[in-house]
TrEMBL record:
InterPro entries: C1q_dom, Cerebellin_Synaptic_Org, Tumour_necrosis_fac-like_dom. Pfam families: C1q (PF00386). SUPFAM superfamilies: TNF-like. It comes from the Eukaryota. Keywords: Secreted, Signal. This is C1q domain-containing protein. SMART domains: C1Q. Residues 1-21 form the signal peptide. Residues 114-139 are annotated as: Disordered. Residues 114-128 have a biased composition (Basic and acidic residues). GO terms for cellular component: extracellular region. Residues 149-286 form the C1q domain. It is found in: Secreted.
């Protein structure tokens, strides 16, 4: 608007200067007193008015209208821009708000994910630890199974005889328990009556004696190698029988022997009832 006014003033100035030139400067007015009415009056009244000044005036009006239209359009454009700008700003604000919202949600999700990851990692660690323990347990079981498989199986049980009285003899003799009931590992030899330890270990032995002859001494002795370990002894002074038994756990070296001896001048008796039995088994190797 201001630019248009300045332009208008300039044009009027030009016109005024031209009018003064043509009437010889006889109006007596100062430059500052000039206005449109005077110009218009000068235009109407002056006899020496030229075609050029008429053209300038028309031009001036056209320019004025033109300017006004352009200014109005510019103002309209400016208003439209302002409107668009403010709606844009509003949109930006909304987007920023949405962004912040999204960011918060993403962060929360990330936190949750991190949490889950941490828990998963902890679980994996625990699983690995458990797997390690399971592995070592399995190894132990395998070892035990192997040991068990390697461990010799030793167990025997044998009765003395079906043929009745044995002894008394003038010398001590090893009793040959000939009725073999069990002889796992073949550590007992029924031909010699001697048990031989196949491995170093703890062994359990059980033995007894039985006699039914009147006025007879009865006795058996358990030997470990050439050592007497235990003696059973009794005497029948009237009709009836005597029966004694005992047992022992012995720690044997591999190759050690265990057997039962009938001392000289003592007798025992066995029959199909299996009254005298010698038994033993390996408790565990040591
Ligand atoms: C300017 O806006 C007014 C009112 O909104 C309208 O009447 C006029 O025609 C517009 N002028 C131009 C040049 O766009
Ligand atoms: C995400 O975790 C960080 C650090 O652990 C914490 O500062 C933030 O407040 C958490 N954000 C949410 C949304 O839970
Ligand atoms: C457990 O044993 C399996 C199979 O031998 C092996 O692949 C795994 O790595 C072992 N795990 C641990 C924790 O020792």
């Amino acid at each position: 608007m201001r630019r248009a006014a300045v332009f208008l003033a300039l044009l009027l100035c030009l016109l005024w200067t031209g009018a003064r030139g043509s009437d010889g400067g006889g109006t007596g007015k100062k430059e500052g007193d000039f206005d449109i009415q005077e110009v218009k009056a000068a235009h109407d009244q002056s006899s020496s008015q030229t075609q050029m000044s008429t053209d300038v005036w028309a031009e001036l009006q056209r320019a004025n209208a033109d300017l006004l239209a352009r200014v109005t359009a510019s103002e309209n454009k400016s208003t439209a821009l302002e409107n668009r700008m403010s709606s844009s700003e509003k949109q930006v604000e909304e987007l920023q708000r949405e962004n912040a919202d999204l960011l918060a949600r993403v962060t929360a999700r990330e936190n949750k994910s991190t949490d889950l990851l941490d828990r998963a990692t902890a679980n994996e660690k625990r699983s690995t630890a458990l797997e390690g323990r399971m592995n070592s347990s399995e190894k132990e079981v395998e070892e035990l199974q192997r040991e068990n498989a390697d461990r010799p199986q030793v167990a025997f049980s044998a009765g003395l005889t079906d043929s009745g009285s044995v002894g008394p003899f003038s010398t001590a003799m090893t009793l040959k328990f000939s009725k073999v009931f069990t002889n796992i590992g073949q550590a007992y030899n029924p031909t010699t009556g001697i048990f031989t330890a196949p491995v170093k270990g703890a062994y359990y032995f059980r033995f007894n004696m039985w006699e039914s002859r009147k006025l007879t001494y009865s006795s058996v002795v358990l030997y470990h190698n050439n050592q007497r370990k235990m003696r059973l002894l009794d005497f029948i002074d009237r009709s009836g029988f005597v029966s004694e038994s005992n047992s022992m756990v012995l720690q044997l070296e591999k190759g050690d022997v265990v057997y039962i001896v009938l001392p000289s001048s003592y007798g025992v008796r066995d029959d199909s009832h299996n009254r005298i039995i010698f038994s033993g088994f390996l408790l565990f190797p040591v």
